Amino acid sequence: MTDTSYRIKGRTGEWEVVIGLEVHAQVMSNAKLFSGSATAFGAEPNTQVSLVDAAMPGMLPVPNRECIRQAVRTGMAIQAQINRWSRFDRKNYFYADLPQGYQISQLYHPLVGEGHLDVSPDDKNPDVVKRIGIERIHVEQDAGKLMHDQHPTRSYVDLNRSGVALMEIVSRPDMASPAEAGAYLTKLRSILRYVGSCDGNMDQGSMRADVNVSVRKAGEPLGTRTETKNVNSVRFVMQAIEHEAKRQVAVLEDGGQIVQETRLFNPDTGATRSMRSKEDAHDYRYFPDPDLLPLELDEAFLEECRASLPELPDAKRARYEATGVSAYQAGVLTAEVESARWFDALLAAGAPGGQAANWVTSELFGALNRLGKGIDESPVTPMKAAELLTLIADGTLSGSLAKQVFEIMLETGQHPGVIVAERGLKQTSDTGAIEAVIAEVLEKNPNQLAQFRGGKEALFGFFVGQTMKAMGGKANPVVVNDLLKKALA
């Protein structure tokens, strides 16, 4: 289904937006696509450059099996066609950060063919699903990086990224709103991180998107598109689409024409600007790379890739829902692979799904957000969390006592059972003790008692609160409620 709710309202009526994304994802590998150079982020400039990367004469590329394996696994994760025969091409262009004068890529025969992603553009309505087609995934080498801020009159070149393996994941123009594009990019990033083929660190440049946008009136042919290059966050992709769509509508309604061009996004202003006119593919003079044989994949290699795939987000979400987790919470818990692994460990420790999901998404995530920590840095382990939830379930801890114990766990890392024993935080269900406190509370509050018996039933909550306060929050609220009803009858 298409998102019919998103339209650009212009002077001449409503306009549809047509969006496609080309995502460049850096393959997680200790070596580059065609050399043994390291790929670690943040290294000193030009310290991870082999003779192959620097295009020294006579240096021949050798494909990195792990990079091919990771791309195939990614294709399998998006239900794509894996092409047993594929080929590398040379894409010729001349730029200072491209030592060879060409980029080794795949155009005519990519490693991975058509696939798709099912996305939920609205977090609050996860059952509303849009299928986004994926045209292909091809493998290519990255270029280096020009550095313009190191010298007042010169630009420097850092070739550390030269030759790093990239997967270019090309969607079909199936998205019709910024929300759909954001959901697609978020889902794709999640799958890459589950598979382990890309770390998804958009702020470090290991995943970035080229955003293709055009506009048209309903029922009309596709308009001329622009491509906004190298956008490096989901939020920025959505902002770039919003701005570019409105810009195109304004140009067309003023009688102008959209130029097919490459644009850049400025995150400070939220606007795009023209970079260069768009070159057509034939300008790159693609031809088969003469130094590389075609890739031919056998069944044993494909089976190894297939067997190595983990449980993916959709399957994991369905499994969580089967344990009593709401669809929304299942989506939250599976969005990041670290959260899902933590929650899996909590379930494995015996915690019931529904109760565990409520606690993790409210108490744990709230505390970690307050502390500025990720879930993989949590001071509370899944085993200790399961123990805490057991103490709540069996009546040892009330909700308020559990919050106290949890705060102490965050500070000390202690087991909740130890904290309860050492600090006397156990909830009491001793009816005799609770009845004595209730009698004392009623005696101290004769005016409220008279008002309650006169028909002001809302004061029941007042008596509950006074009783719990008098018992230091350690009384079992269920028992307190039952005994108060009897005492006030």
UniProtKB/TrEMBL annotation:
GO molecular function: asparaginyl-tRNA synthase (glutamine-hydrolyzing) activity; ATP binding; glutaminyl-tRNA synthase (glutamine-hydrolyzing) activity; transferase activity
Signal peptide residues on this chain, from the entry's feature table: none
Keyword Nucleotide-binding tagged: yes
EC number: 6.3.5.-
Entry superkingdom: Bacteria
Keyword Ligase on entry: yes
Segments forming domain Asn/Gln amidotransferase: 341-488
Reaction it catalyzes: L-aspartyl-tRNA(Asn) + L-glutamine + ATP + H2O = L-asparaginyl-tRNA(Asn) + L-glutamate + ADP + phosphate + 2 H(+); L-glutamyl-tRNA(Gln) + L-glutamine + ATP + H2O = L-glutaminyl-tRNA(Gln) + L-glutamate + ADP + phosphate + H(+)
Swiss-Prot/TrEMBL GO biological process terms: glutaminyl-tRNAGln biosynthesis via transamidation; translation
InterPro entries: Asn/Gln-tRNA_amidoTrfase_suB/E, Asn/Gln-tRNA_Trfase_suB/E_cat, Asn/Gln_amidotransferase, Asn/Gln_tRNA_amidoTrase-B-like, GatB, GatB_Yqey_C_2, Gln-tRNA_amidoTrfase_suB_CS, Gln_synth/guanido_kin_cat_dom
Record keywords: ATP-binding, Ligase, Nucleotide-binding, Protein biosynthesis, Transferase
Similarity field: Belongs to the GatB/GatE family. GatB subfamily.
NCBIfam families: gatB (TIGR00133), PRK05477.1-2 (NF004012), PRK05477.1-4 (NF004014), PRK05477.1-5 (NF004015)
Binding partners and assembly: Heterotrimer of A, B and C subunits.
Biological role stated in the UniProt entry: Allows the formation of correctly charged Asn-tRNA(Asn) or Gln-tRNA(Gln) through the transamidation of misacylated Asp-tRNA(Asn) or Glu-tRNA(Gln) in organisms which lack either or both of asparaginyl-tRNA or glutaminyl-tRNA synthetases. The reaction takes place in the presence of glutamine and ATP through an activated phospho-Asp-tRNA(Asn) or phospho-Glu-tRNA(Gln).
Protein name: Aspartyl/glutamyl-tRNA(Asn/Gln) amidotransferase subunit B
